[in-house]
Amino acid sequence: MDRLIEEGHPVVMYLGHYANWEYVPAVVRHFSKPRLCAQVYKPLHDKAFDRLMLKVRSRFNPVSLPQERVFRTMVRWHRDNVPFIIGFVADHRSNSSVSHHATTFLGQHTPFNPGGEEIGKHVNAAYLYLDVEKTGRGHYRMTLKPIKPHSLEGDSPYTRRYYEMLEETIRRRPGLWLWSHRRWLYQ
């Protein structure tokens, strides 16, 4: 992480709803370089619950960015030479029934939103995957792995490779993935 930041790359970190993803903001405590850590979130309809979730998610001082502000904020930070890491929990279902991007994930035709990759291109980002292993009750090992697509040809190679890496993680211990969030609502 520190090397990527020193080289001038903002970092787009992909992760999934796997194990306790709410611990993820703590990962930045282990690095010295990024001045800003951000996480993308979708504001909840219940304002009281939204405030509670933001309080829980800001325990380690990340910036919580609503989805609609992510692009402008990342471009501004990059323009101002602010080193940053931003996390995308990218395994949720696509926001609409009409998605122009799809892959095979866990044996299912899966529409996806390539937002993190598309925004990352505008700021010359490096793409990392956060692999999580549960090592004991309340204990997790988090490993940052570079996302290296098999080929840069075609549609959304980094996002597709992320889905492959996430599938490997899920197959290792399926019970830790959030199966209840209606991933395949749209076919």
Features:
single chain, 187 residues, alpha/beta, 8 strands, 27% helix, globular
Task: Outline the secondary-structure elements.
Elements: H1 2-6, E1 11-15, E2 36-41, H2 47-57, E3 63-66, H3 70-79, E4 84-89, E5 102-105, E6 108-111, H4 115-122, E7 126-136, E8 139-146, H5 157-172
Parallel strand pairs: 1-4, 1-7, 2-3, 2-4
Antiparallel strand pairs: 5-6, 7-8
Instruction: Please tally the helical runs, counting DSSP H or I stretches of 4 or more residues.
Output: 5
**Overall morphology:** globular
Order of helices and strands: HEEHEHEEEHEEH
The rounded Rg comes to: 16 Å
Q: What is the count of distinct domains?
A: 1
Structural class: alpha/beta
Strand content: 25-35%
- pLDDT below 50 for ≥5 consecutive residues: which ranges? none
N-to-C CA distance? 37 Å
Q: Bin the helical content.
A: 25-40%
Order of strands across the biggest sheet? 3-2-4-1-7-8
What does the main sheet amount to?
6 strands, mixed
Quaternary structure: single chain
**Number of strand elements:** 8
Q: What can you tell me about this protein's structure?
A:
By secondary structure, this protein is α/β, with parallel strands linked by helices. The protein has one domain (2-176). It is 27% helix and 26% strand. The chain has five helices and eight strands; from the N terminus they run αββαβαβββαββα. The strands form two sheets. A six-stranded mixed sheet has the order 3-2-4-1-7-8, covered by helices on one side. The chain is globular and about 40 Å long. It starts with a helix and ends in a 15-residue tail after the last helix. The model has no long low-confidence stretch (mean pLDDT 85).
